[in-house]
Amino acid sequence: MDRVAVGRWLSLALVPLGVWLSVGGPGASGALGAPVALFGLVGFGLSGRLFDPDAAPSRSAIDGRAADLFQVGAALLAFAFLTVVLGRFESPSAVIASLRSPGPLALVAIVAGTFLGGGLAALTHRWGRLRAVSQTGRFRAIGGAATFGTYLALLVAAPSAAFLYAAVYALSRLIALFRLPPSSQW
After folding, report:
1. Sign (positive/negative) of CA torsion 71, 145, 108, 165?
2. Predicted model pTM
């Protein structure tokens, strides 16, 4: 089975998962149901463009921005899904308290979120050699493992630091996305 077919099947699998979360999911996971199903439908519809390594990249700035924003949204959805699965919720006041008196894990969360979010995108844009390496599946797998592994480790150790990491990751990634040209034009 090729990458496009696998991407279609995995995207399509998100739809029943989203329906199950909406209808029969426990507690807070009900709020994740609609976004999970929506991402499944969008991923299925765009699977030819998202998963085909030989597809010609769109030179349109709008298509590039939409794909980049889709990736950020998917990462945030994955962070939320990990949080629901592990049941590691903390109140917003605990997250705010971690900002007032940051411990070592809060500082790790800020540095890691900045680097893995926008920092890596900026480095990839600036260095041609890193840009060429970043197109490989191995590099993307390592990047995904670092992004979600860091969140998972922080979620287990200190949930407020994990939420801080997710916020800094998303903010730095969005800043990089709107300060740099779309990734399809690199």
Report:
1. positive
2. 0.74
